[in-house]
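Re: the 469-residue chain
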Amino acid sequence: MPTRWRVAVVGGGIAGLAAAVRLRDRAPSGTEITVYERSGALGGKLRTGELAGGPVEFGAESFLMRDPAGGESAAVALIRRLGLAGRIVHPTVGQAALAVDGELRPIPGGTLVGVPGDLDRVATVARPTPEADHDGGRPLLGSTDDVSVGALVRARFGDEVVDRLVDPMLGGVYAGRADDLSLATTMPALARAARTEHTLLGAVRAAQAAAPRAPGEPVFGTLDGGLSCLVEAAATASGASVRRNATVRELTPTGSGWRLIVGPTRDPEHVDVDAVVLAVPARPAARLLTGVADAVAAGIGGLDYASVALVTLALPEPALPQLSGFLVPGTEGLLIKASTFFTSKWGHLRRPDGLALVRASVGRYGDEAQLQRPDEDLAATVHRELSAVLDTPLPAPVAGHVQRWGGALPQYTPGHLDRVAEARVALRSTHPTLTLAGAGYDGVGIPVCVRSGETAAEEIITALGGSGR
């Protein structure tokens, strides 16, 4: 083994960059780290842009402040490591609403991703069926069981709770449907509680009690200056050589590591490294693993993804309610599935000229045909639907932006975590110097992706025989 390690990180999203930072911090001094990003920009779904002379997020807008166990999230820990903690800001308007029956109703408190911990509090938007949530004398789930969120909640609380609360909450995060999404992957705290509690109400309360939150403690944060600051700081702190517009086309094991084929097929570059962190979505990862670890490729290659578009409008002095935004159940028949009143929600973005930035998310899994519309059509539809939901004609936008994210959001069906675990065990047994990281395996959200990348880096350090620094 060479005295100076060479590690390739394939994928320049936040998972890959977090892996690179952890390698720099923990691998032996002098380790050569190279990040290969097939596009021209780092950060993946973290992208800060500009509209009407002000900053706006064209991708993810915030991160969770705490992890499920109650400590600070991996995103916050990384931000502290990068010296950006002083830039963390929190929403100044926290109340959001649901668009139900043609009107906006505040999202009830006391829920866990829409699943009620108090049935009386959700009566304003849905009618639960409490008699169905009976104690059958055993836990809701077996020790290894996984079910769809919709299947569990429908059986216990009825259709309205799923359709009007849980589905829009999950749809806002995953662009998927509660009836398809894995409980263990999307709501791990509730899944753990369901393996000991006999009722869903009890499971929700147990999950909430396991990670109590102090009154007024912020749930979300973002960075003053935009989340691209996190991307840039991570790339710098990693000390990695960053290769943009560098597609890794093939991976081949060698006697002592890996050979990468990088760049266009007409002029390929061959690079030899000791280890690889594969921090790309599941399907391109599966293509690279075909012929190298076929069982692993098959195990991860079946993961499906949803596409979305984010439409941001700059509106002159619109009449907006005192809300951070709203979610839209699929039963309402609207193209919009969620909207954020950016300059209301984030006080540091408010403008003295009264211009408001409003962003809408469109696109649900299985309904991608709606995203084939031209940008102008999407923007006009969003403007019309916003006016209808708010029950007031909004002023014409002075500027707009449509950001399309094709195949952006993984759709985790029941059993996802087991499939990923099996793939990783198989990969570790045959190719321990190749690890997987990213949302396709461990879940969406900045903290989860950061933790995934850091874990992959630690595995590489172990595999190369180093105890780390």
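Residues 47 and 426 are 34 Å apart (CA to CA).
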